[in-house]
Design a protein that fits this description.
Order of helices and strands: HEEHHHHHHHHH
Strand order of the largest sheet: 1-2
Shape: globular
Oligomer: single chain
Distance between the termini: 60 Å
Length: 197
């Protein structure tokens, strides 16, 4: 056993525990509390196992799930930037790149490079796996928002045009899931007035 290698691997694993402390703006389905980044990542990983068959193109499920499990770890340093926080988005990329540099460097170089490549792939959103991962990243909060009665949308005064702009590329990963999300999660909340027109 390489003592330095396993030490670095455990250091990274321990650092990942901090993702449980990064709060998001999406309520859990019962509307009682908001989810954290780790719950978000886990939930999307399970959803991908179940819904991966609806990807527009064949995808490598393990690669897609791996991407989803690490895509938000940078928020340990960078913090969560709310989907509709236009001011926060101005510095988001810079903050997240610095975080990626630090966090993935905790691992042994070969693993750090692989994890960083997965994170970069998610960010670039060009491969079938990255496109489907992005679809999950947009549909999972929509599903939870709808299940919680549109609570987060209502509290933040979110407009339909903001949701449509955020989801302009969601269909690239799965047209079927975007159609389902729009018809079952978004449109009923527009009718109810929890999403503003």
């Amino acid at each position: 056993m390489n003592e330095e290698r396993i030490r670095r691997q455990f250091a990274f694993c321990l650092e990942m525990d901090k993702e449980k402390n990064i709060g998001r703006q999406t309520y859990l389905s019962d509307g009682e509390r908001k989810e954290n980044d780790a719950e978000h990542a886990w939930h999307m990983a399970v959803m991908t196992l179940v819904l991966g068959e609806y990807a527009n193109e064949d995808i490598d499920l393990l690669r897609t799930i791996s991407m989803l499990l690490i895509h938000d770890v940078v928020e340990i340093d960078a913090g969560d930037t709310y989907a509709y926080d236009e001011e926060g988005k101005k510095t988001q990329r810079q903050r997240e790149l610095a975080a990626a540099d630090r966090l993935f460097s905790l691992l042994p170089p070969d693993q750090g490079a692989k994890m960083r490549a997965l994170w970069d792939e998610f960010e670039a959103c060009e491969t079938p796996e990255a496109k489907f991962a992005r679809t999950m990243d947009n549909i999972q909060p929509a599903m939870l928002n709808a299940a919680a009665g549109g609570k987060a949308w209502s509290e933040k005064g979110v407009h339909l045009n903001q949701i449509l702009e955020r989801n302009k590329n969601t269909a690239q990963g799965s047209q079927a899931l975007w159609d389902y999300s729009r018809e079952n999660f978004i449109e009923p909340n527009v009718k109810d007035g929890t999403i503003l027109k």
